[in-house]
Design goal:
The complex is a heterodimer of chains A (265) and B (348). Chain A has 265 residues and is an alpha/beta fold. Chain A has helices at 45-53, 75-78, 99-107, 121-132, 151-163, 181-198, 209-214, 233-238, 241-252; strands spanning 2-11, 19-29, 34-38, 60-65, 68-69, 82-85, 169-173, 201-205, 218-223, 226-231. With 348 residues, chain B is mostly helical. Chain B has 2 domains: 2-285, ABC transporter involved in vitamin B12 uptake, BtuC (Orthogonal Bundle), CATH 1.10.3470; 297-348. Chain B contains 13 helices and 2 strands; from the N terminus they run H-H-H-H-E-H-H-H-H-H-H-E-H-H-H. The chains are: A alpha/beta (265), B mainly alpha (348). Chain A binds chain B through residues 53, 74-80, 82, 84, 86, 90-97, 101, 104-106, 108-110, 113-119, 161, and chain B through 179, 181-187, 189-190, 193-194, 196-205.
C-alpha cells in the first residue's frame, strides 16, 4: 500500500527558472494495484517517482508505505521496500559484475548485508530458476559480465532484480522507452508476467499511451504537476487513445500535444 | 646480480600488499585515493615506534594495520560526509598524515616532539624473530647447495624472508578474494561500478566507501609496517610516490594477466608488483642512474604502461582494417572476373 498526501515540490524557488514540479499531489494505491501514469514532458511523473523512491524529498507532504511514514527515510533505507527500474538499461545493473553477482545484490535488498558469500550453491539454484522465467537463456550465462549483455537483456535482468524480493512497491520509470519496438514488447510482457506473479503494487510511468492502456488496472494522467485524470478498473477497460485525448482537451481546454515521440500511438 | 634481483623479489612481494590496497581503492571503488602516500608511512611509523618501545613486532604490525584502517575511514568520511572531491580528500589526508607521522615517531625522542627517522638496526622484528625459528630448520643450506650445484655464484643469506612474505601475501590475497565475494564485498564493488543501482538495492554507499577505503589503507599500512621491519628503518619520506608505485603494479599485472575474475586479478597484481621491482632493479644496473632518480623512473614506467597498450591496440586495429580492406578488394575483383567470364558467351 502506498499513500501520497499533499505532496509539493518546487525547483529553483524564487529564481527565474522557478518550476512547480508537484502541486498538492494526493494518490493512494491499494495492495496489488497496478497504476500507469501518462502525461507530457515536465508533467511531474518522474519527479513523483523520485519522491517515492527517496531520490528527492518533498517540500511538504507525507509519503506512507505499508503504514510506515517514510518521508524522512533516506533513499537506501527506503529501497528495502521499493523495487525500481530506470529508463536507461545501463542504470539498473552493474556492468563489470557477473549476472549471478548482480542477482545476489538484489537478493540482499531486504536483508542485512554481512560476510556471508554472496553467491553460494543454494542461491545459485534460486537465481537459475528465476532467470529461466525470462526465457532469454541467461540461466546458462551466470558468470557472464552484465556489460556484455544487450540493452534488452540488461533491462529484463533489471526487472527481475527489482522484483526479486517482492518489494512492497515497484516503480517503473519509462523502462521500455530506450528500447527498440520488439525489445520493448518483450520487456512489457515480462513486466506483466512478473507483476502478476506476485501481485506487486506497481506504479509505471510511460510515454506510450497504448502501453498505459494495455497494462494495469488503473490509469492516471498528469499535467503541470497535478493529477488531472484518474481512471479506475472497469472504466479503464473501455478506454481508448481517442477518448483519453478528448478527455485531456475537455479538462485543460487545449489540445494534448500529440507529439508522436511523446505519446507514440 | 642475482643477489640484487633476489632482494627485489622479496621487496616486490611485500609491496604487493600495498598494491592490493591501491587496487581496492583505484579499481574496485573507482576512487583515486592519494591517502596511500601518507598511510604507508603511518604503518611504518607506528610499527617502528612500538618496536622501539619494546612491544612484540607482531602486535606492532597489527596496530599499524588498524591505524591505517582508521586513516582510510577518515578519507572516506571527508568525501562522503564532507562532500569533498575524492582526489582532494586523499591529498588532505596525505598532508595531514605527514605531520602526524612525525609526531608518532617523535614519541621515541627525548629531545623533540617530532622525528623523521627511526632506525631499527638491533631491534627484534617480525623477520628477525622468524629467522630464529627458520635457521633451526636448515632449509637455507639445502636450497643453497642445490643452487651451487647449478653453478649460481651469489646466493642469498636466507630464503626465510621470501618464504615468510610469500605466505603472508598469499593469505592476504585469499582474504581479499573472499572479502570481495561476500555480500558486503559485492556491494562495495557495485559502489565503484554503479552507485545509483546499488543504492536502489538498499545499500548505504557512504558507509561502503568508508569501509572500502579503510580496508584499502589497512593493507597499505600493513605493507608499510613490513617494509620498515624489512629495511630496518622508518622514514617520513618513504611514502613519497607510493601511490604511483602501487598503480604501476596494478597496471602491469592487469596488462599481462588480465582481469577475468577477482582471483586472477589479485594474483596478477602481486606478480605485477614483483615485476615492477625487478624493472627498477634492472634500471639501476645502468651506470647513469642515481638512487635519486627512482621517482622519475617510476613515472616513466607508469606512463609507458598506460600509453604503450594504446599504441599497440591502435597498430593492431590498423593492420586488421588494412587486411580486411585488402581481402575485400581481392574478393570484389574476383566476382567481377566471374561476371565477365559469365557474360562472354552471351556476347558471342
Amino acid at each position: 500500500m502506498l499513500k501520497l498526501q499533499q505532496i509539493n515540490k518546487i525547483f529553483n524557488e524564487a529564481t527565474l527558472d522557478e518550476k512547480v514540479a508537484l502541486d498538492e499531489i494526493n494518490l493512494e494505491l491499494k495492495s496489488g494495484d497496478f497504476v500507469t501514469v501518462i502525461g507530457s514532458n515536465g508533467a511531474g511523473k518522474s519527479t513523483m517517482l523520485n519522491m517515492i523512491s527517496g531520490a528527492l524529498s518533498p517540500d511538504f507532504g507525507e509519503i506512507i508505505i505499508e503504514d510506515t511514514n517514510v518521508t524522512k527515510l533516506p533513499e537506501y533505507k527506503r529501497s528495502q521496500m521499493i523495487g525500481r527500474v530506470f529508463q536507461d538499461p545501463m542504470a539498473g545493473t552493474a556492468p563489470l559484475m557477473t549476472i549471478e553477482e548482480n542477482l545476489a545484490m538484489a537478493y540482499s535488498r531486504d536483508k542485512k548485508r554481512g560476510f556471508k558469500r554472496g553467491v553460494d550453491k543454494k542461491r545459485r539454484e534460486l537465481f537459475k530458476e528465476a532467470l529461466e522465467t525470462l526465457h532469454l537463456n541467461l540461466e546458462n550465462r551466470l558468470n557472464a559480465k552484465v556489460g556484455t549483455l544487450s540493452g534488452g537483456e540488461r533491462q529484463a535482468l533489471s526487472l527481475l532484480m527489482a522484483t526479486f524480493t517482492q518489494p512492497a512497491i515497484l516503480l517503473l520509470d519509462e523502462h521500455t522507452a530506450a528500447l527498440d519496438p520488439s525489445r520493448a514488447e518483450l520487456i512489457t510482457n515480462i513486466t506483466k508476467q512478473l507483476v502478476e506473479k506476485d501481485r506487486l503494487t506497481t506504479l509505471m510511468v510511460t510515454h506510450n499511451m497504448q502501453q498505459a492502456l494495455d497494462l494495469g488496472n488503473r490509469l492516471i494522467m498528469m499535467d503541470k504537476g497535478q493529477i488531472i485524470l484518474e481512471v479506475e478498473a472497469e472504466e479503464k477497460k473501455e478506454l481508448t487513445i481517442e477518448k483519453l485525448m478528448d478527455e485531456f482537451q475537455r479538462i485543460r481546454g487545449e489540445k494534448l500535444t500529440s507529439d508522436k515521440a511523446l505519446l507514440s500511438i | 646480480m642475482f643477489a640484487a634481483l633476489f632482494g627485489s623479489v622479496e621487496q616486490g612481494i611485500i609491496y604487493a600488499i600495498m598494491a592490493l590496497g591501491v587496487y581496492l581503492s583505484f579499481r574496485v571503488l573507482d576512487f583515486p585515493d592519494l591517502t596511500v602516500d601518507g598511510s604507508f608511512v603511518t604503518g611504518a611509523a607506528v610499527a617502528a615506534t612500538m618496536i622501539i618501545f619494546g612491544y612484540d613486532p607482531m602486535l606492532a604490525t597489527a596496530v599499524a594495520l588498524l591505524i591505517g584502517f582508521l586513516a582510510g575511514c577518515i578519507t572516506g568520511l571527508l568525501h562522503t560526509k564532507g562532500k569533498i572531491n575524492p582526489l582532494l580528500s586523499g591529498i588532505l589526508m596525505m598532508i595531514a598524515l605527514y605531520s602526524i607521522n612525525l609526531r608518532i615517531m617523535g614519541t621515541t625522542s627525548t629531545s623533540s616532539v617530532s622525528r623523521s627517522n627511526i632506525p631499527l638496526l638491533n631491534e627484534a622484528t617480525l623477520f628477525s624473530k622468524f629467522h630464529e625459528f627458520w635457521s633451526t630448520l636448515g632449509i637455507d643450506n639445502s636450497i643453497n647447495s642445490f643452487f651451487k650445484m647449478l653453478g649460481v655464484q651469489y646466493l642469498p643469506g636466507t630464503w626465510g624472508t621470501l618464504f615468510l612474505m610469500l605466505i603472508i601475501t598469499v593469505v592476504i590475497k585469499f582474504i581479499v578474494d573472499w572479502f570481495l565475494q561476500t555480500e558486503v564485498g559485492l556491494a562495495i564493488r557495485a559502489t565503484g561500478d554503479n552507485k545509483r543501482m546499488i543504492r536502489s538495492l538498499s545499500a548505504n554507499t557512504d558507509t561502503l566507501v568508508i569501509i572500502g577505503l579503510g580496508v584499502s589503507n589497512a593493507l597499505v599500512a600493513f605493507s608499510g609496517a613490513l617494509i620498515a621491519q624489512y629495511g630496518k628503518f622508518a622514514d617520513a619520506a618513504m611514502g613519497i610516490g607510493m601511490i604511483i608505485a602501487g598503480l604501476a603494479s596494478v597496471i602491469i599485472g592487469e596488462a599481462i594477466f588480465g582481469t577475468k575474475t577477482i582471483m586472477r586479478t589479485t594474483l596478477a597484481i602481486i606478480i605485477g608488483a614483483v615485476i615492477y621491482r625487478l624493472v627498477l632493479a634492472l634500471a639501476f644496473r645502468i651506470k647513469f642512474f642515481d638512487p635519486g632518480d627512482l621517482k622519475v623512473i617510476t613515472a616513466v614506467i607508469v606512463i609507458g604502461a598506460l600509453v604503450i597498450p594504446q599504441f599497440i591496440e591502435k597498430r593492431r586495429e590498423k593492420t586488421r582494417k588494412a587486411k580486411r580492406h585488402h581481402d575485400r578488394v581481392a574478393e570484389l575483383a574476383l566476382t567481377k572476373e566471374g561476371t565477365a567470364i559469365a557474360e562472354t558467351p552471351t556476347n558471342q
